[in-house]
Amino acid sequence: MTSVPGRRSSTFTRLLRHGFTDPSAAERLLDGPELVPVRDDPVLLDALGATADPDLALHGLVRLLEAQATATDRQEVLDTLIAAKPLRDRLLGVLGASEALADHLARHAGDWRALVTYEARDLHPGLAEFEDGLAGVTDPVSLRVAYRRCLLSIAARDVCGTTEVSETAAELADLATATLRAALALAEADAPEDTALCRLAVVALGKCGGHELNYVSDVDVIFVGEAVGGADEDKALRAATRLASHMMRICSENTVEGTIWPVDANLRPEGRNGPLVRTLASHRAYYQRWAKTWEFQALLKARPVAGDLALGEEYVDALQPLVWQAAERENFVADVQKMRRRVVENIPTAQVDRQLKLGPGGLRDVEFAVQLLQLVHGRTDPSLRSGTTLDALKALAAGGYVGRADTAQLDAAYRFLRSLEHRIQLYRLRRTHLVPEDEADLRRIGRSLGMRNDPVTSLTREWRRHAAVVRRLHEKLFYRPLLDAVAQLAPGETRLSAEAARERLVALGYADPAAALRHLEALASGVTRKAAIQRTLLPVLLGWFADSADPDAGLLNFRKVSDALGKTPWYLRLLRDEGAAAENLARVLSAGRLAPDLLMRAPEAVALLGDGEAGGLRPRSRAHLEQEILAAVHRADGADQAVTAARGVRRRELFRTAATDIVGSYGTESQPAEADQGALVDLVGGAVSDLTAATLAGTLRAVVREGWGDTLPTRFAIIGMGRFGGHELGYGSDADVLFVHEPRDGADEREAADAAGKVVAEMSRLLQLPSADPPLLIDADLRPEGRSGPLVRTLKSYEAYYRRWSLVWERHALLRAEHVAGDADLGRRFIELIDPLRYPAAGLDEEAVREVRRLKARMESERLPRGTDPKLHAKLGPGGLSDVEWTVQLMQMRHGAREPALRTTRTREALAAAHAADLISGEDAATLDEAWVLATGVRNAVMLVRGRAGDTFPTNPRELAAVGRYLGYGPGHAGDMLDVYRRTTRRARGVMEELFYGGS
Q1: pLDDT tens for residues 94-120?
Q2: Do 662 and 588 meet the contact criterion of CB atoms below 8 Å apart?
């Protein structure tokens, strides 16, 4: 081809035009002696150009010709290649798509003849044809050769488009079935004495069982064995185990002809730790008593394939009823979805975006969604009981369980992704589900799928498009038909029956499916734009509600909010257009009573959930809050209106904080749950304390303006105490305070005192007035003389009292004192006054230490409510808040004078400072910190869930589950939560007893 001047350039160009990427190498091969008889035949070049990889096909053809034993054999290949188009397309198609099958043909030069036959029966072979193809094998090596010969014909039909992807997958499963039978026959021939003792059935699971196998995949099986006649059962099972093991080795082991595929029996009862072969009775007992949800899901595809088929059928018949009862198990949907999430989480980060099978939007998403629906509805509808994904999807659509449009999109996406998977594996016959990164690989795959113009870009675009469809639909597939059950449908659509909708809602965890359907009907029925948007939102929202402990409450609350805001133009648009807003709302509405109650009082606060990165759910600083509240007070007409405005801001900000807390605890699809519970506890404590301080500052300003204009006759300051002073307030905490005043120069002391008293009384009244906003209770019981003493004192009065009369408990209480509102200079001087009392220069003497210990012991014995389990009381129980705080505070009083870092009102800061000062070991400090954070988290969770404060875990199972969900425990793990709480607080109690009661 190079003898004529200029010819090389012409051939080079022609090769490029036909898709060769290395025309120079191709030209050398075409000029080689093997192709001399046909090198000028245009049919050959056209046929090579039609393959996935013309360079690969040409190279494989030359190798095949070189492998022929004689010139006559070589000429036979060439003559048939040119004369017979079916063979030409099949042979070159395989050579251009599979390097591994080209290697096989180079080793077994006569196997190309397997592609010559073009009879009708050859176009769609079944199990019988493959068994014929494997007949006569005598050992594992000959089995591998025969297997690949059969695989050649499957691949040829696949790459030429004679079969579509589901037919190819079915043929591969039939070939696997024939191979298992041949391997078992070899094993039985090697051990006739074992064969005589037992009946052995091989049951396929997974893709082989579902008649949808890949080119290279583990073949999942379960073995069932029984004794023959009067044989001893133990001996029979040992014999069956030897046969099963030998069969697995025949398929799996590497030989001179490589391997076929691994036979995987790890889906059997107890997995690798269980016996390889069990009797039918043993299988039945295990699945009735011990099996997990995923094990029933695996049995969906169970199919007898080899050995004693009658025994295999008995196995399937015995276990199928259990499979279709699996959806009745507690937390069924949550278990299946959790398993899917776990699969994704275990994918190496570098591979997630290329994972065709397990990644988001991959094959497993379609399969899991279909199987979930089968298990829920297959109980009452036998038409859904197919092990083949596409057949099951078709049946689900026919029954109205999945919308037709969704079915069509998923069917197309699944077929594309499976075709892509087949082409990836076919190249080297290796088990992989990763889309390659190499451009040459992508080009070959794209061309094999018919993408001839810019195959790399086209393939990538199509893959991403189909993956996005799957990712979008695989969750909605389960929820959308619930709306169709109550909404108007397009002509020809099939409605999900009321009973099927009820089943699905029960499976999702809804306790009152009838009420849920009524809510869906109210929200989504009709032809308005509002109803149309709701029909778009609700499928996703239903899934998020189901991820909570109380889906019913979530849906009911969503209906209430939608009813309240339905006429506002921005509400549904916000939820539709900002994904974070819809998910955040779903989390907030289904996590308990507090946040929905706050939201219902002013539903427009939903807007806070949609700001995303702009910081809608980030609590405001104290300065920001004070500025807003004081501005509202300034604009108000009178103290009542001013405090109403301040309380409105407080309610809104409490909702913001609660929403931040819930979303941080639950996590979202784009943001995982906050791993550091301490960070959430600190966030809530700081936000609620800042909000309380700002509310008090605004109320104080309003009361002073109303009664005295701009200036009160006395300076007035509010000192935060307890958790308020420590920046550790919970959602339901009272505001522990002290009030201090100092008459202004020239002011009458009685008049000043009266004014200060009226301010306190009026503040308390206004903050507790019945309204739509939660009250803020002011508690001044920590003042000198307790409830017997005056509510407000002058600074001099405090000084005189503390100098002469202060008790140890009062000095102890002052550890948390911090100025929070009012006159800053007066507040500073009050703190200077009490510092020597709470941090005595000489520390605490032994009598004072004993008094602190006596007070703590008395509190433990007297204040714990009757009937309460002490070990589960977050505040007063062993290792709870009180234990940790008193331990830390005793160290502060004893050592605070000489260790400045201990002079803080915050428990965790003080604990860290004590460790830094070597007053407590790192391990003990971590133990106390962990217990304090956990107990505080429990109190926050109880308030969020029940809507009222509490120090103990709820007894209602659903409320207890909601507390667990907030603390990171999934469905069914409330017991684990209680165990962890007891264990954590028990360790903390041990540290407390050593440091508080036993320390020097």
Answers
A1: 999 999 999 999 999 999 999 987 655
A2: yes
